[in-house]
Each structure stands twice: as structure tokens, then as C-alpha cells.
Amino acid sequence: MDLDFRAVLAQFDSEFLEKKIKLVRHASSAYDLPLIERRGFMREYEERQRLPVFDRVDGILSFMGEGRTRARFIGASLVGSSSSSRGPWPSGFPYPEMGRGNLCYELVPQEQFAPLRDRLVIDWGAGTRNWHQHLCAKEVLEIRPKGYVTEFPGYDDVLLTFDGLERIVSNPDANRAWHMALRAVAGVYLIVDTVSGNQYVGSAYGESGLLGRWATYVRKPHGGNAQLKVLLHEHPERHRAFQFAILRTLPKSMAKREVIGVEGMQKSRLGTRAFGLNAN
Fold first, then answer.
1. Gap between the Cα atoms of 105 and 114, Å rounded
2. pLDDT tens digits, 193-218
3. What residue spans define the domains of the chain?
4. Arithmetic mean of pLDDT over the chain
5. Each residue of 168-187: pLDDT tens digit?
6. Which pLDDT band, with edges at 50, 70 and 90, does 150 fall under?
7. What is the pLDDT of residue 1?
8. With 78 labelled, which of 19, 95, 205, 250 sits at a CA distance of 20 to 30 A?
9. Residues of 118-153 as b/e, b for ≥16 C-beta within 10 angstroms?
């Protein structure tokens, strides 16, 4: 796609691009930075820096590295004042042991660019170690459809947050590969409450396969399950912390009782009746 990303961003706020802007590409081999993003702590992560990288800068355009030199746009912020680093990471931060840096910048999100979040992908160029640099030309690799989540990774590598599943189910055209793959198989799946660590094992069968069963959770987050009903009655927003994975795929031609038999074996292996969220 022969297009400079600045031309794309300018459609939403050209004046922002006239300021002193830095580009930031987040990537790490030591920590799962997309997990920090999914948990909603990306601003706190960006605000704390070891060196004065945002001094004499008006704003930043933030990207998440996606392998090699690709970078996915995740937001824009104005840079305010800085101070000495705060105390511990906030409750729920996935890596409390991570260094907090010596500086803390005030970053103010610029929501006018929200329509491009997770959709605009650029080529960062060869210097990926240079994770922050002043605004310069970057090639647009793709602008993903609205509602796009990610490429289907293969059944063994499926790991979805509730929000990700909700977007996939609600945007079939943008996530066509997910719909085709999940509809094609029956299976046994795992839901993890990432707050408590408790697990629930369930199964999917019938014509719509895994897609049909998981779509039920989008409509009714408890999915009709007794223990999940109790959990969500006590914590109505807890489903936002659910994580979905596939334990085993099965042919849709397999009889319901056989699928349930495989489900029962997985419950026994994981102990989810005694220590998890399965009632039977």
C-alpha cells in the first residue's frame, strides 16, 4: 500500500501532526506487552520511563510491534508534565516485578484517532531497536477492516479475551477466518477467570460448532452455567476478565454424548469440578 501513514492520520487531526511528535513502537522479548495492553494498563506502562525520552515533545503516536518490522497503531497522547516515578504498579498489573523507571510523564489520550486503533499497520523500518523516534515517513502496510481482531492463529493457539471474542462474533465480515474455523468444528473449551484463576470446561456440538457455543457467551456471559451465574451475580462485570481457549477440537459429526464424554475427561484432568467453576 503506497501511502504515508501521516496522510491517514491527518484525516482525523492534522493539527496534532504539526506539533513536536515522537513515534513509539513497543516490543519486548521479556514481557507480554499485548497482555498489558489487553488488561488496560498501557498508559501506565508508557508513562513510566527510565530515561527522559519524552522531554521537549508535545505528543506521541504509539504502536505495538507485531513481529519483524510491523507496527500496529494503538493510540495517540499529548505529553504533559513529568515527575519522579510513582510507587508500585496499580493493582492488577500483570508484571508487578517490572522496573518502574525514574520518571513519570502525564499522558493525555487523544481519542480523535480511536477509529484507527488496532487497524492501522505500518512498516517501522530496519531500526526496530530504535523504539522511539521523531515523526517521519512510514509506509502503510494495511488498514484492517473495522472490528478486526487478529488473524486466526490455528486451533491450538487460540487465546481470546472476552472483549476479543465479542468483537469477533459481532464483526463476521472483518473476522471471516475466525467464523469459518470456529463453525467448522465441535470441541471442548476452557474459560479462565483471570482474576481468580478458576477454570471452567465446556463443550460445543451441533451445526454451528464452537462458534455457536461461544456466541452464547457474548449474548449471555454466564452461558447458562450454574457456577458462572453465581460468579456474575456477585461480580456483574467479571466476564470482562474471562479468557477463552480450545482444549480439543472434534468433528461436528461426533454424537453429543461422545462430545460430553470428552468434556468430562477434561474436567477430571483439570479438577474443575472440585476446584474450578464446573458444577457437574
1. 21
2. 999 999 999 999 999 999 999 999 99
3. 5-143, 155-270
4. 94
5. 999 999 999 999 999 999 99
6. confident
7. 56
8. 95
9. bbbbbebeeeeeebbeebeebebbebbeeebbbebe
Rounded alpha-carbon distances, angstroms, from residue 276 to 25, 216, 220, 223, 241: 39, 21, 20, 16, 15
CATH code for residues 155-270:
3.40.1440.10
- The helix (H) or strand (E) run that includes residue 133 is strand 132-134
The pLDDT score that the predictor gives to residue 61 is 98
pTM of structure: 0.75
Q: How many CB atoms lie under 10 A from the CB of residue 27?
A: 16
Closest C-alpha among 274, 36, 246 to residue 160: 246
Q: Which cell numbers in the block locate residue 38?
A: 489487553
Q: Contact 65/27 with Cβ under 8 angstroms? A: yes
DSSP string, 10-30: HHHHHHHHTS-EEEEEE--SS
C-alpha cell at 69: 518490522
Rounded distance between C-alpha atoms, residue 61 and residue 8, angstroms: 13
Residue bearing cell 459429526:
253
CA-closest candidate to residue 132, choices 189, 83, 61: 61
